[in-house]
Design a protein that fits this description.
Blueprint lengths: L23 H15 L6 E4 L5 H8 L5 E4 L3 H14 L4 E3 L4 H4 L4 E5 L4 H14 L5 E7 L5 H8 L2 E6 L6 E9 L8 E5 L2 E5 L11 H9 L10 E4 L5 H9 L5 E5 L2 H13 L6 E5 L11 E6 L4 E2 L2 E2 L3 H12 E12 L5 H7 L3 E6 L3 E7 L5
Organism: Microbacterium terricola
GO molecular function: methyltransferase activity
InterPro entries: RlmG_N, RsmC/RlmG, SAM-dependent_MTases_sf, Small_mtfrase_dom
Length: about 375
């Protein structure tokens, strides 16, 4: 029986035209690895970067047992779980990007991350802890691949083969692991702020120009004694700034990305505010109660996996509107051509411009009272 790829969905991630749950790269990885997977025993297969479960569930359908899986995005984990329930498939475990994920693995199926430092973290972890005969099938869409990815894999594996392209996808096959290492945050100093970042987190150890404008614009006084929120926190730079400027307040920092959450925690520790910054992996602010906070800062992402979409920010605006108290404020920085102000007015409430430079705009939206 052929695996029903068409039954897979992306939810709770954004769904819509052009946003797919499975693509040609997933199918090519599965095809190229089929013979290697057929000889495995329980626990010897690992899947990393599986967007919505196609690799994991198809491998289980083919007979794999006790598959270990790591997905950076929380929405990916939840989509995999929902798709597994829909198809009646069991037999996998979701784990963090640690030694336990890959220890003793003999085959690893990997969707190539777009960031080279993320690939370096993953490849180093596999080389350090997988079986000596491990084979890594690392695939992606050619438009998102770079020759430098070959160099990263060659730094951790003695042999690298490249498959023929199919449907604008390709697989890199790595064997014979060399010395590896566990992922460690990279560190950079920006004035009086230390940024720590694991591979793949937006802006890495830098501070992007949008975040810089938001930091320059944040209010010096925020009424109340409730938690301040850094939504889609990335490396936690805004959370650290809020904690420093408001030493009597707790900061709630949240992000979908496991790497971002670990990075934000490390950044808070490096700047001496970890006792007042609570970092949570969350889908927006889903874990916060309605009307529970009075201030949220947001630099919204515009990527869902490899896809660029303008549907992420409105979802975050809606979540912020739900958890803000009437009169509470959402401070947002956004690329000016995106023209989010009308959407902020509609979803949150009256919105004013706070700052603007050549590329970015910062606005403050006041949560309207219930009608």
């Amino acid at each position: 029986m052929t695996f029903p790829f068409d039954a897979l969905r992306r939810r709770p991630d954004i769904e819509g035209e052009g946003l797919v749950a499975v693509d040609a790269a997933d199918r090519l990885i599965l095809d190229e690895s089929a013979s290697a997977r057929s000889g495995l025993t329980a626990g010897e297969l690992v899947v990393i970067g599986d967007a919505y479960g196609a690799l994991t569930l198809a491998a289980l359908h083919d007979g794999a047992e006790d598959v270990r899986v790591h997905q950076d995005a929380l929405t990916g984990e939840r989509a995999l779980a929902a798709n597994a329930v829909d198809l009646g498939v069991t037999g996998y475990r979701s784990l963090g990007l640690t030694a336990d994920l890959v220890r003793g693995a003999r085959v690893v199926l990997l969707r190539l991350p777009r960031a080279l430092d993320a690939l370096d973290d993953i490849a180093g972890l596999i080389a350090a802890h997988a079986a000596p005969d491990v084979v890594v099938y690392a695939g992606g869409r050619i438009k998102h691949m770079a020759v430098a990815m070959n160099d990263v894999l060659r730094a951790h594996f003695a042999r690298l083969d490249v498959t023929h392209a199919r449907q604008k996808s390709r697989v890199l096959v790595a064997r014979e692991p060399l010395a590896g290492r566990d992922p460690q945050p990279r560190t950079a100093r920006h004035g009086d702020v230390t940024v720590r970042a694991l591979g793949g987190v937006f802006a890495g150890t830098g501070i992007d120009i949008g975040t810089r404008l938001l930091l320059e614009s944040l209010p010096r006084e925020i009424p109340g004694d409730d938690a301040l929120v850094d939504l889609a926190c990335g490396t936690g730079v805004v959370a650290v700034s809020l904690a420093r400027q408001h030493p009597d307040r707790v900061v709630y920092a949240c992000d979908l990305s496991a790497a971002a959450v670990a990075s934000a925690q490390a950044t808070a520790e490096a700047n001496g505010v970890a006792d007042r910054v609570r970092v949570v992996r969350d889908d927006g602010v889903a874990a916060l109660p309605d009307a529970s906070v009075s201030f949220i800062a947001l630099n919204p992402p515009f990527h869902s996996g490899a896809a660029v979409t303008d549907e992420i920010a409105p979802r975050l605006f809606a979540g912020a509107a739900r958890v803000l108290r009437p009169g509470g404020e959402l401070w947002t920085v956004w690329n000016s051509p995106l023209r989010y102000r009308a959407e902020l007015e509609r979803v949150v409430g009256p919105t004013r411009q706070v700052a603007r430079n050549a590329k970015f705009t910062v606005t403050a939206s006041v949560r309207r009272t219930a009608r």
